[in-house]
Amino acid sequence: MSNSIATGVAYADPEFVSLSVSGASTNGPAASITSTSANTGSVDASAFVATETLSAAGGVGFSIKAVENVNVVAGAYLTALYGYLAFGASGRVTGLASGTVGEIVMSAACTQGTYAAMECEIGMPTGAVTGTNTSFFYLSSYGADKATFDTSGTLFNLAGVTKGTGKLLADTTTGSTARPVQVIKVVTPDGVRYLPLYSTVAIAA
């Protein structure tokens, strides 16, 4: 039986368990979804939604999995999963805009395991090398006016937390005049450590 579906037709078939799209992407994507939305904020606009519901204990998997296989000397860039958000001459947001979002919602049952809104992994099988520059994060700005970001941009924006002793963000209260004014709590292989934050680039001797 064919797995092709006419666009715009409601379809339900208990025998339809998977959809496979094959093609050559040399001159364009093997599959493409184009959508236009005129919503004004009452609903979330989305060209594509994938929902995976786990119904058995011990299940693992992905809502969306992107695989890029490479066994040739590739060109200037490769990305397994790419999020691109472009603003036109009149485009902007009144809130928060981001190219890629990782979000998890915790529950009272999350008493075991490790949870992270964004996970970065680098696989190193036997014989693998790190090339000239390999890192967990690569941060870069570009464009004719990137000097504007050099002046007013920041490394990250930490929001939604309340500072306090022993918390993720804490004030420092003692130490020399060169002490940081705050610290951020992180976890290393040796345990909890604290990254110093200074209120000025002029650190006293």
User: Helices and strands, in N-to-C order?
Assistant: HEEE
Q: How many beta-strand runs?
A: 3
Proportion of residues in β-strands: 5-15%
| Biggest β-sheet: strands ordered side by side in the sheet | 1-2-3
User: Mean pLDDT, nearest integer?
Assistant: 87
Approximate shape: extended
Enumerate how many helices there are, as a single number: 1
| Helix percentage | under 10%
Largest sheet: 3 strands, antiparallel
Using only CA atoms, what is the Rg? 23 Å
Structural class: little secondary structure
Low-pLDDT segments: 6-10
Distance between the termini: 77 Å
Structure explained in plain terms:
The chain is 3% helix and 8% strand. It has one helix and three strands; from the N terminus they run αβββ. It has one helix at residues 146-152, and strands at 169-171, 182-188, 191-197. A hairpin with a 2-residue loop joins strand 2 and strand 3 (191-197). The protein is extended and about 65 Å long. The termini are far apart. 0% of the residues are buried.
In short:
Helix content is 3%, strand content 8%. By secondary structure, the protein is largely without helices or strands.
Task: List the keywords.
single chain; little secondary structure; three-stranded antiparallel beta sheet; extended
Record the SSE blueprint:
Layout: H1 146-152, E1 169-171, E2 182-188, E3 191-197
Antiparallel strand pairs: 1-2, 2-3
